[in-house]
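Exam prep: given the inputs below (a chain plus iron/sulfur cluster), describe the expected output before reading on.
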Amino acid sequence: MTKTPLTLYLAAPRGFCAGVDRAIKIVEMALEKWGAPVYVRHEIVHNKYVVDGLREKGAVFVKELDNCPNDRPVIFSAHGVPKAVPAEAARREMIYVDATCPLVSKVHIEAERHHANGLQMVMIGHAGHPETIGTMGQLPHGEVILVETEEDVAQITPRDPEKLAFITQTTLSVDDTAGIVAALQARFPTIVGPHKEDICYATTNRQGAVKAMAPKADAMLVIGAPNSSNSKRLVEVGRSAGCAYAQLVQRAEDIDWRALEGIGSIGITAGASAPEVLVNEVIDAFRDRFDVTLEQVETAVENVEFKVPRVLREPA
Ligand code: SF4
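Solution:
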């Protein structure tokens, strides 16, 4: 049977970022150094395939530190943790390794610096996301006001409107965040903040590639987990850039082939916590059904790498 021709646009950059790569390495190296089990507070990164793979090697994923014994190492996820968590691990004299992405830690430091200068913080982020909880947890309760939308900006009641600074989650939509920052600056003209926002290079670059790819594609798939903030933003960016059908899939088995009937082109990308093996699985699934011509849509080249903490580079 002759297969229908299909142009498959592959976004670049896509998939793993330096922070995710480092966090996974940290768990693997901790298992090598201390043996199994090694406890991990929360999913180390938001991807079931990655988490299941590490679980098979001996990682035990738990919700809270209370679920970890004192005598086994514990790792904190790439999203960051409230200050109280490492403090509690130290009190219990546990071995702990912090896999917080250095770009999230940078935002934590910014928040502390502004707080030390007497400023109250406004955080642009998603309520309930581990990164937001971790970042807000760097400062005492009430010192960080969360806003999720431009509408929220009109509702907040800071202690002193002239003594404010803002920070952002690292995985937000670049365009939506620009609108919220503008609303903050309009209402609080003296608000202090980063040059643009704290959205990381990986989020920005993946969104940039989707913006270039989406208008050419009849449909678009983002490989990523339903709880992955940066992956969900890629779907939204794809839709706003002109691709009417943009969907999140965890892997090939999630693809709704009936919805893709009649397409001549497909755009594929992957969130920062989705491994390349799942991208290849999806490409293979398209090759099984279509006569695929693959075209890479490259908008940036990344060469960022973060070192693992020293404790893992030293012998046991
Ligand atoms: S998405 Fe950005 S902030 Fe999050 S882990 Fe990756 S590099 Fe770090």
